[in-house]
């Protein structure tokens, strides 16, 4: 058996070129086990293994390799232990096949290909894995979406389902385009409109709604990982990031051409100088989690940003997992590590910036003054708490020295006492430190209401560079473009060959789309990359976005993995249709709304979710890839929350502006939150109903504290790009939707609304069904609902609810960073008066009973699903 394994390894290695051996076997070992001691910052025995030249030069014991002669090479000798030294040190031994690979690599001339990536074998990739990189097929304008779908159905002997009824269709279209269910009046108008163009008119009305940008902006923010905080342990606020969120919403509402949308986000500051919208758009490049602290290594945190932005651009616009090529050549796609770092070099001169930028006329700043005044109250009160500790110390010091005025104390004594704070008890000292940390957070939050842009620049901006308090920038005048090196293993301490800015060679090789010319200077690199991405000749860009749009309408893309068009992504179910859609997208001037029209006016989109031959369909096409019928799907978490507010008549349709804080479950709102190495301030929902009941897209997105209702219904990760929402069913969803205080409050508001709009119990049940489902109840449903209403009314008469309880002070336990002792900290209440929701004690038994019926409707599949 051992002989067989030896022969297998020998034959396998012999079949590989020295370049292959270096890339697949040698380079990973050098990066993982060697350069830590023989690389940048530490070269034991004066030996550097980061380049071929350094290995030939060797260290204190002479050259480490002799090309063509592994037996005479010191590196091979220490790996085999044939000399006085044994490496790696200790008990670790490299596998036999790895040692053999080193020998064959050295005997083959020891090519060190990190700088040239010459080891990439472009001829080993299968044609079916290269489909996305090939040029788009010419679009036959005589064909339609239904031609492609129907052809595949006929090929598989499947008939299409009949059209959906009008009530189903308007709800489907309204939620798809606006994220809100249609009102009963809108449903009635559509059902009663017998004109031939009733449905196209409906689509145009929905596309023109301000709600459209809020719905489709949310999809984009999922992909780019938008949040209002930076993540990690401090999770500092990004106080001006909301302007990027509003930019995205406006872009969709205005049907901004997608190629312009790309250019603004990647290089808006360079391409459109002086254009405020374009500057705000560059917040895309900073959307991922990142932080730099006093304990951070600047080179490491800088590399974190560069890795993040490189992968993000690849995933978002090109549908490629570029991050897989960070440590080594991509294992599945033709993306050498060299290309990864060439793309990264594009962003090497991109620096964080937060310049002043006046609010735009189209930005909603109506609540800026209220928000600023509210936060100033919080800051003032926290400052008073801190000051009270200073005053206590001052009194103790004066008393100890027998004086009545601070100025009578010896010079410097009070200053020292205020620094040391020995007069405070351990409990007081821990509380004082927390107030200081909270003040730091509040001070940063105050910038939320200032006219600044969360953006980037080419090189640092004097006076507006935004890397945090611990990051030191050179002046703009002295700034030079940094060199970018390939990092084997992704290790910033082990740089290899230097690279210049570039793009991806695979599109030139397979898609007949050449790489752009990249400037070597500080500015213009992102411009070149943005133009390369946004070109109609780029075979990936239009395909990726067309597939995303299709996915959000049908629940899945034509290509099933919308952010991975490589080998490991699912292949398109209708490749010709995807190319046709991509061509249509380009021909329409990159209009997203034109794509909606084409898709939603198709027969495929308008089909019923019920197929008369469902048994045969499930056998032949269980995933409904051929679209013989409409696949029902649960609405996203935000749609569910917003629809509940809409049904209750509590939804605020105010648009834009700084993030608001919605009502969330009390147990989460009151639990301790960890931030800055200690206890964070308590969560306070926005005091005014019109603020906290705004659409979910306007909620403040804190990476370390996600709204539990959004989270439990498969909300997106705020750290990772979300290409498609998953749909899981777990018990905690029922707890949130049936037992949660927010939903119960909205059910009561729903009942109060229905009572105002209908006078009799039967009419109230009918109105409730229309508001929740867009249809009247059936006779049986009305009968059951009225019976339940009667029973619950009697129960509520017999058991009146207790009055509203005053909220108790919120006391949290904290553990001292220095002593490990436990202390108590009383969180500060919100200084603003709170506008309460309707309370059960303020209503009649009939209202509370109607709320029980409403709660059932809000928990039903018909409310939570699209059909």
Task: Write a brief structural summary.
This protein is mainly alpha-helical. It is built from 34 helices and twelve strands. Residues 1-9 and 114-119 have low confidence and may be disordered.
**Shape field:** globular
Structural classification = mainly alpha
Beta-strand content estimate: under 5%
Portion of residues within helices: 40-55%
Describe the structure.
There is one protein chain. Helix 7 packs parallel to helix 9 and helix 25 packs parallel to helix 30. Helix content is 46%, strand content 4%. It has 34 helices and twelve strands. The strands form six sheets. Strands 1-2 form a two-stranded antiparallel sheet. It has 867 residues and is mainly alpha-helical.
Task: Quickly list its features.
34 helices; 867 residues; two-stranded antiparallel ribbon; mainly alpha
Q: How are the SSEs ordered, and which strands pair?
A:
Elements (H helix, E strand, L loop, with lengths): L1 H13 L3 H17 L3 E2 L2 E2 L8 H6 L16 H7 L15 H12 L37 H11 L10 H13 L5 H9 L5 H10 L2 H15 L17 H12 L4 H14 L4 H6 L16 H21 L18 H10 L3 E4 L14 H34 L11 H8 L5 H20 L9 E4 L25 E2 L12 E2 L5 H7 L13 H9 L7 H14 L20 H13 L4 H9 L13 H7 L12 E2 L2 H12 L17 H4 L4 E2 L2 E2 L9 H4 L15 H5 L18 H9 L1 H17 L3 H13 L5 H20 L12 E5 L6 E5 L18 H14 L2 H4 E2 L1
Antiparallel strand pairs: 1-2, 3-4, 5-6, 7-12, 8-9, 10-11
Helix pairs in contact: 1-5, 2-5, 7-8, 7-9, 7-10, 10-11, 12-20, 14-15, 16-18, 21-22, 21-23, 25-30, 29-30, 30-31, 30-33, 31-32, 31-33, 32-33
């Amino acid at each position: 058996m051992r002989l067989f394994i030896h022969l297998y390894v020998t034959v396998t290695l012999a079949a590989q070129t020295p370049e292959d051996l270096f890339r697949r076997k040698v380079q990973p070992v050098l990066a993982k086990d060697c350069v830590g001691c023989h690389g940048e910052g530490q070269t034991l025995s004066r030996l550097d293994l980061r380049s071929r030249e350094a290995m030939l030069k060797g260290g204190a014991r002479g050259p480490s390799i002799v090309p063509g002669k592994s037996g005479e090479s010191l590196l091979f000798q220490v790996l085999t232990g044939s000399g006085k030294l044994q490496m790696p040190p200790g008990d670790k031994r490299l596998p036999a096949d790895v040692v053999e690979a080193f020998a064959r690599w050295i005997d083959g001339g020891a090519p060190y290909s990190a700088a040239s990536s010459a080891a990439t074998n472009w001829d080993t990739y299968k044609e079916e894995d290269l489909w996305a990189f090939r040029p788009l097929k010419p679009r036959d304008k005589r064909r339609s979406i239904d031609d492609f779908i129907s052809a595949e159905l006929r090929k598989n002997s499947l008939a299409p389902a009949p059209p959906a009824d009008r009530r189903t269709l308007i709800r489907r279209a309204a939620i798809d385009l606006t994220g809100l269910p249609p009102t009963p009046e809108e449903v009635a108008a559509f059902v009663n409109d017998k004109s031939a163009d009733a449905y196209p008119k409906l689509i145009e009305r929905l596309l023109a709604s301000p709600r459209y940008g809020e719905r489709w902006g949310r999809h984009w923010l999922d992909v780019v990982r938008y949040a209002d905080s930076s993540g990690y342990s401090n999770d500092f606020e990004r106080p001006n990031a909301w302007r990027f969120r509003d930019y995205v919403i406006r872009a969709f509402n205005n049907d901004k051409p997608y190629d312009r949308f790309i250019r603004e986000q990647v290089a808006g500051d360079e391409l459109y100088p002086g254009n405020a919208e374009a500057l705000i758009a560059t917040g895309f490049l900073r959307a991922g989690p990142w932080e730099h602290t006093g304990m951070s290594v600047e080179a490491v945190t800088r590399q974190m940003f560069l890795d993040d932005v490189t992968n993000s651009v690849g995933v978002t616009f090109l549908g490629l997992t570029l991050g897989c090529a960070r440590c080594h050549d991509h294992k599945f796609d033709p993306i050498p590590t060299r290309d990864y770092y060439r793309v990264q070099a594009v962003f090497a001169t991109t620096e964080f910036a937060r310049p002043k930028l006046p609010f735009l006329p189209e930005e909603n700043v109506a609540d800026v003054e209220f928000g600023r005044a509210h936060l100033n109250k919080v800051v003032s009160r926290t400052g008073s708490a801190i000051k009270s500790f200073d005053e206590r110390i001052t009194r103790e010091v004066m008393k100890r020295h027998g004086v009545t005025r601070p100025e009578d104390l010896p010079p410097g004594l009070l200053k020292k006492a205020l620094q040391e704070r020995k007069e405070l008890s351990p409990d007081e000292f821990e509380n004082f430190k927390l107030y200081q940390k909270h003040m730091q957070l509040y001070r940063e939050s105050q910038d939320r209401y200032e006219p600044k842009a969360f953006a980037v620049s080419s090189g640092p901006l004097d006076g507006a560079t935004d890397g945090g308090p611990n990051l030191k920038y050179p002046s703009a005048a002295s700034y030079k473009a940094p060199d970018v090196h390939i990092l084997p293993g992704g290790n910033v301490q082990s740089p290899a060959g230097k690279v210049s800015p570039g793009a991806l060679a695979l599109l030139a090789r397979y898609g007949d789309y050449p790489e752009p010319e990249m400037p070597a200077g500080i500015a213009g690199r992102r411009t070149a990359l943005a133009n390369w991405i946004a070109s109609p000749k780029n075979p990936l860009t239009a395909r990726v976005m067309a597939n995303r749009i299709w996915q959000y309408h049908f629940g899945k893309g034509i290509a099933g993995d919308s952010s991975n068009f490589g080998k490991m992504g699912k292949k398109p179910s209708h490749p010709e249709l995807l190319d046709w859609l991509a061509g249509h997208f380009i021909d329409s001037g990159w209009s997203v709304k034109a794509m909606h029209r084409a898709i939603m006016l198709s027969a495929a989109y308008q089909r019923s979710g019920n197929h008369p031959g469902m048994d045969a369909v499930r056998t032949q096409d269980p995933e409904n890839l051929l679209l013989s019928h409409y696949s029902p799907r649960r609405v996203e978490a935000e749609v569910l929350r917003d629809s509940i507010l809409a049904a209750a008549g509590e939804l605020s349709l105010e648009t834009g502006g700084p993030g608001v804080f919605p009502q969330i479950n009390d147990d989460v709102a009151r639990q301790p939150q960890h931030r800055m190495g200690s206890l964070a301030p308590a969560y306070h929902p926005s005091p005014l109903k019109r603020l906290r009941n705004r659409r979910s897209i306007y909620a403040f997105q804190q990476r370390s504290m996600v709204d539990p209702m959004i989270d439990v219904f498969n909300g997106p990760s705020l750290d990772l790009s979300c290409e498609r929402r998953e749909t899981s069913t777990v018990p905690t969803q029922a707890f949130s939707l049936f037992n949660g205080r927010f939903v119960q409050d909205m059910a009561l508001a729903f009942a109060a609304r229905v009572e105002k709009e209908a006078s009799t119990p039967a009419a109230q049940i009918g109105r409730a069904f229309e508001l929740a489902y867009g249809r009247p109840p059936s006779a049986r449903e009305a009968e059951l609902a009225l019976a339940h209403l009667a029973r619950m009314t009697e129960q509520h008469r017999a058991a009146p609810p207790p009055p509203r309880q005053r909220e108790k002070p919120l006391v949290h336990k904290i553990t001292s960073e220095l002593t490990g002792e436990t202390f108590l900290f009383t969180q500060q209440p919100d200084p603003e008066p709170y506008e309460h929701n309707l309370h059960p004690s303020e209503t009649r038994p009939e209202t509370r009973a109607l709320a029980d019926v409403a709660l059932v409707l809000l928990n039903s599949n018909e409310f939570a699903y699209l059909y």
